Known about the structure:
Elements lengths: L11 H8 L4 E2 L1 E7 L2 E7 L2 E5 L4 E4 L8 H7 L1 E6 L5 H8 L11 E3 L5 E3 L4 E13 L2 E13 L6 E4 L2 E4 L14 H6 L17
Amino acid sequence: MTDLPAPDPVREADHRDVLGRFASGVVVVTAAGPDGPLGLTCQSFVSLSLEPPLVSFAPARTSRTWPLIRASGVFCVNVLAEDQEEVSSAFARSGGDKFRGIQWDPGHDGAPLLTGACAWISCALIHEYDGGDHTLAVGRVTALRAQPSREPLIFHRGRYRSLARATRIRPERPGSRDTANARRSDGPGQPPNFLSLLL
């Protein structure tokens, strides 16, 4: 059997370009520090487990804010809404007063809950793992709530985006021609099956 040639090393630019095609939400992870509130912007946030309720996010190893959040032992994941681009940019900066002009209230554990967010997920830090140039932080959810009227901020290919407004499709009778068409892949003249498309 002929050995296949080893693949070329993955270039950082290619990795960034290809993975950037995966759309994500944007969150700000906050905590109460000894000298005031702390926060950092993050895209790599996921729901990890339902039982027990766990979430995970990946702060960069170069972050100067993450060690301070880690030391607090608790944090809040603020899921940003579509009109909070400036909030995302403020917490993505290094240094300075990130909370200047930002409205917030303390959560049950003291971590800031940013006003206007889509959702708030309060957590206790329970694990941290190596993740290359990032670190993987795992939190156990201690409280959470959402604002149903708010739509999320989306980040895709280096740009902020919004979800398209979903359109309600009138129900069809089972077995009707329209119902059969709706089950097919999108094509010319067919209504789209997936309505929450990125703008």
